[in-house]
Amino acid sequence: MTIEINNEETDAIGVRFTQVSQHIEQLTRQYQRAAGDVKLLAVSKTKPLSSIRAAYALGQKAFGENYVQEAVDKYHALSDLTDIEWHFIGPIQSNKSRAIAETMDWVHSVDREKIARRLSEQRGASLPPLNVCIQVNISGEESKSGIPLAELDAMVALVTSLPNLSLRGLMAIPAPQENHAAQCAVYAPLTQAFLALSQSHTSVDTLSIGMSGDLAAAIESGSTLVRVGTAIFGERAHPVNAS
Ligand SMILES: *Cc1c(COP(=O)(O)O)cnc(C)c1O
């Protein structure tokens, strides 16, 4: 019986994964982005190992997690998937930074000097530099995560001065907007900042924007990495709380 349920789950993930991938390809063409420019981060938070294995079997390599303990547990449990890539995309408490620094390939949610310093200090010497996106708050007071764009230069200077971090780009989670035009308008200053940053820093190639609800606007606005969970793995069973 368990096997049957797993097969059904795997089939459902297969169908949804194909739909999401095709949708991203279609939007990439529609907004005249180069083929392959927009990558997919499969957000697997709260989802079981079997779901991650199912997506991996379909060719997905990059997975995003929000909760430190869950991310670390999955990292260990799936260590047989050699080229899997783990992205941490959630809020970071300083007492959890070591676990992130020792296991993750990417962190999208760097928005404090203290966290950046700890991640660099705690990154094992045998590991490649930790790929980092600076999280920017582009919708004002509503969000408590992310730095204002006015503080970006200072944070860039800090991150690029730290030996075990590699600055890869910017990430944002804007407040929900009414329509496509409003979504693009919120992204516009971030897109400009990203283009400037990628010209001044050769390591910068990642604009981590776009979720299920605003994929089109994000891809039109220059996203290079969309973060999609529910549309691939189905609804999450439990309401999510920050770890
Ligand atoms: C959960 C989450 C996503 C994916 O959201 P879905 O609604 O499941 O597609 C993307 N980005 C971040 C930062 C998230 O926490």
Automatic annotation (TrEMBL):
Q: Which InterPro entries match?
A: Ala_racemase_N, PLP-binding_barrel, PyrdxlP_homeostasis
Q: What is this protein called?
A: Pyridoxal phosphate homeostasis protein
User: Which co-factors does it depend on?
Assistant: pyridoxal 5'-phosphate
Q: Which UniProt keywords apply?
A: Pyridoxal phosphate
State the superkingdom.
Answer: Bacteria
Q: Does the keyword Iron-sulfur apply?
A: no
GO terms assigned for molecular function: pyridoxal phosphate binding
- Name of one Pfam family that matches: Ala_racemase_N
* PANTHER family attached to this UniProt entry: PROLINE SYNTHETASE CO-TRANSCRIBED BACTERIAL HOMOLOG PROTEIN, PYRIDOXAL PHOSPHATE HOMEOSTASIS PROTEIN
Domain Alanine racemase N-terminal residue range list: 23-236
* Family under the similarity heading: Belongs to the pyridoxal phosphate-binding protein YggS/PROSC family.
Tell me where in this chain the PTM N6-(pyridoxal phosphate)lysine is found: 45
Known function? Pyridoxal 5'-phosphate (PLP)-binding protein, which is involved in PLP homeostasis.
- Matching HAMAP family: PLP_homeostasis (MF_02087)
Stored PROSITE patterns:
UPF0001
